[in-house]
Design brief:
The mean pLDDT is about 95. Strands 2-1-3-4-5-6-7 form a seven-stranded mixed sheet, with helices on both faces. About 50% of the residues lie in helices and about 10% in strands. The chain is an alpha/beta fold. Helix 8 crosses helix 11 and helix 8 packs across helix 12.
């Protein structure tokens, strides 16, 4: 089938290529003219035959404006898919606004990163059965081969909700590996930490793709000396914890891993200054100047 993609960055560009390899016709638009197939949004829409399907793959902060911009050029029977990391609460109002113009809407959580071109992408979609069916050939081409990698998670908003939880789990898994790595490096017993990490890749219950990637990072930099211990977050972990509070679901591991990222950004923790002062006051414990 034919598809327009807006946003040809690290994931969008690879998705365009994977779809083309599967025989689909893809017209891509990006602000970078060197990689774009269209000069402007109106040029992108003009290159598509109605009923049109346009996949938006841009950062969350510009998603709303991008969708509104392309929707103004589309019409009855067309479909817009948001594959970015939008917050699930934005999907319902967005779908309602588009429906007033006769435009369908599907939200799609996408996992796979820069490896998706070769490995395929895990897709979690939200929307009506009719709208999901319109884009099913696209989903089938993007997902990995086999029975796994795609889920129609529910109505509008379910796709981004599922991806939010996925990313919260990712926070927890990464931090468990990170803590284990730190303990290994602190130990006087283990003298070859990268070898231990590598040994876990087969035959253990903790093997995973994330572990494979940690091993790959250690192959490139055995002591991770080129990196600073500072980790950003893009919002999904915060939203996951917010939902846990709303629904009274105990997310101990995910919440802890999120707060650990916040701690990584402090050169000199104000809270720990207070802890040190209190220990000194009640117990006369030494403080470090």
């Amino acid at each position: 089938m034919q598809l327009g993609i807006i946003g040809l960055g690290r994931m969008g560009g690879n998705m365009r290529e994977r779809l083309r390899r599967a025989g689909h016709e893809v017209v891509g638009y990006d602000r970078n003219p060197d990689i774009s197939d269209a000069t402007r949004l109106d040029d992108l829409v003009a290159k598509l035959t109605p009923p049109r399907v346009v996949w938006v793959m841009v950062p969350a902060e510009v998603t709303e404006d991008t969708i509104d911009g392309v929707a103004a050029l589309m019409g009855d029977g067309d479909l817009i898919i948001d594959g970015g990391n939008s917050k699930f609460t934005n999907d319902g109002p967005r779908a309602k606004r588009l429906a007033e113009k006769g435009i369908g809407y599907v939200d799609c959580g996408v996992s796979g990163g820069v490896w998706g071109l070769e490995n395929g992408y895990a897709l979690m979609v939200g929307g009506t059965a009719e709208n999901v069916a319109k884009a099913q050939p696209i989903f089938d081409a993007l997902k990995p081969e086999g029975e796994f990698g795609f889920a129609h998670a529910g109505d509008v908003g379910a796709g981004h909700y599922a991806k939010m939880v996925h990313n919260g789990i990712e926070y927890g898994l990464m931090h468990a590996y990170a803590e284990g790595y730190e303990l290994l490096t602190a130990s006087e017993y283990v003298t070859n930490v990268p070898a231990v990490i590598k040994s876990w890749r087969e035959g253990t219950v903790i093997r995973s793709w994330l572990l494979d990637l940690l091993d790959r990072a250690l192959d490139e930099d055995p002591e991770l000396a080129k990196l600073k211990g500072y980790a950003d977050d893009t919002g999904e972990g915060r939203w996951t914890v917010d939902e846990a509070v709303r629904l009274a679901v105990p997310l101990n591991v995910i919440a802890s891993s999120l707060f650990a990222r916040f701690a990584s950004r402090q050169d000199d923790s104000v809270a720990m200054k207070a802890v040190a002062a209190l220990r000194n006051q009640f117990g006369g414990h030494a403080v470090h100047s």
